[in-house]
Here is the input.
Amino acid sequence: MTQMIDLRRRGLLRGSGITVLSASAVALLAGCEKMASAQASNGASAANDIGILNTALALENEAISAYQLGAQSGLLQKPVLEVAVLFQTHHKEHRDALIATIRKLGGTPVPAKSDAEVAQALNAAALKNQTDVLRLAQRLEKGAANAYIGVIPSFGDRGLAQVSARLAADEAMHWTVLTQALKDPLPAKALSFGA
Amino acid sequence: MRLPALLLAVLALAAAAPAAAADAARGQELYESRCGGCHSLDANRVGPAHRGVYGRKAGTAPNFSYSTAVKNATVVWQEKTLDAWLINPQALIPGQRMNFRVALPEDRADIIAYLRQQSGK
Here is the structure.
């Protein structure tokens, strides 16, 4: 029975296909359509932006795997599990939008590493309880938010920089929810991200 | 309008004072929050593993798939090159894939101090 539930959960987690763009991804990308076309004719800048987007894609792929590992670990209880699945869905929408934008710019999206590779890199074997999983997710979300903020000055296209800020906002929202779930104090000072 | 002599003396002293020593402990906090989205000390993730990076030639972390630009770079990671990299990676090695920037000099210095410490240098 446990295995059946796990398999169904896996199906749920894997259900949103890579080939079909989610509504959010389409909406995000819609703002990039014109700039993507314009960028394609601006070689050096477009190539650099593709590089940034591919690094972001690798980060999103890692986040998807991390939530997959957390969900399959059996360590998460409701309602935390539902939140983790929702956040994974957000990361899949980010991934889809990034893939579509990279292709629009003429680039080739980087392939995702396997869940096993990510598990090893993140030392998932050390996760023993729900708090451990939440701490890992919290750490990765903060790192992701800061990564998106830190690449903003490097984009050649200001529209893509704005997309990076929107992605950072999603990751910051995830971090805040995870921080509340862990009952950690909120930052005492302003401007706690990107610093 | 003349500035009081005491104020002038204070300003002169401040200008002559050496930069504060880099703080590796603060660098660790910064590293975990700013670099930790993509990097770990001992595992290749989105970016290469960082333990041992200080003093290492760019593009030589074992088993990491680097961009051609970084693989072909002649840069050796030490204070000046790491600082330039964190100011603007693309300016130091055009064609690289990181593009993450750290704006404040004190933040860069502390992160570099931490990487140096973790590299045993």
